[in-house]
Design brief:
Length: about 270
């Protein structure tokens, strides 16, 4: 197993392994490297959907996404697809976010595999939310250190439900508050945990102050010097730690077809 760092702050490409056939030592090494580098890129992997599920279970129990399109045979796989003959003429995941933070226990991490990759475009960018926090000025750190924020599924996705389903869905997935700055349960690192998809407002402060603080945190995540960009092909698998990394896709591939399959590992309540 060879590890090649992707920049000075996080991210690594892991070479010389076959995700279909891993020893216990190799699994332990990957778990350690994931914590250390936060994003792992593994290329030259010819996984089936079933093999992706089996590999992902080495890291924990898998989430079944409550809303989005799922694989017809494997409910643990979220299908992210647009362009081509799909009828989807836009790509939704084009802003910085952590996955599924509207849940009481957001996922620990995600594992994404390229299935149909356009000839150009369709990259995924990742930002190190730990380094983004470290670079905040002292005034902002002090202001947000003890605050919580409300996360709301409806902020991003209310349009996908019929009116008759909105009330029942709101009861099933009520508003939830998480720390603005999350402490990683394994490394102890602090990371920005607000995001543009699901964070509705910061609790207990005036609206204008909430908006101001959220913009500061957003701008910290947007710093290109703490980001990496992954170019996909059909043999690329990427693992990222949802507790300390944010990501966004690019919509520069349309109208070409792009299909990705994601497994998501259950997490715990942020503190």
């Amino acid at each position: 197993m060879k590890v090649v760092r992707l920049n000075n702050f996080f991210g690594a490409e892991v070479q010389g392994i076959d995700l279909r056939n891993l020893s216990r030592k190799a699994i332990n090494d990957l778990q350690r490297l994931w914590l250390e580098h936060k994003v792992l890129v593994v290329r030259n992997q010819s996984l089936t959907s079933k093999e992706q599920v089996n590999f992902s279970k080495h890291f924990g129990d898998l989430e079944i996404h409550p809303f989005a399109k799922k694989h017809v045979d494997y409910q643990e796989i979220l299908v992210l697809e647009s362009g081509g003959l799909t009828g989807k003429t836009h790509y939704a995941a084009t802003d910085w976010h952590s996955d599924v933070t509207y849940r009481e226990k957001p996922p620990m991490g995600s594992i994404l595999r390229g299935v149909v990759v356009p000839e150009v475009g369709g990259d995924t960018c990742f930002a190190n939310a730990v380094e983004a926090y470290n670079r905040l000025d002292l005034e902002t750190k002090s202001a947000v250190s003890e605050l919580t924020a409300t996360h709301d599924w409806f902020k991003k996705n209310h349009h996908v439900l019929d009116k008759k389903d909105i009330e029942s869905t709101r009861k099933k997935y009520p508003l939830v508050s998480h720390p603005v700055i999350r402490t990683h349960p394994e490394t102890g690192e602090k990371a920005i945990f607000t995001n543009n998809f699901f964070t509705a407002y910061i609790d207990g402060v005036a609206e204008n102050k909430s908006n101001m603080l959220l913009r500061r945190l957003e701008n910290a995540i947007r710093d290109p010097s703490i980001q990496i960009r992954v170019r996909w092909d059909e043999t690329t698998v990427v693992l990222w730690d949802n507790r300390c990394v944010q990501h966004t896709g690019t919509d520069d591939f349309l109208p070409a077809h792009r299909r990705m399959e994601r497994t998501t590992i259950l997490g715990d309540r942020p503190f």
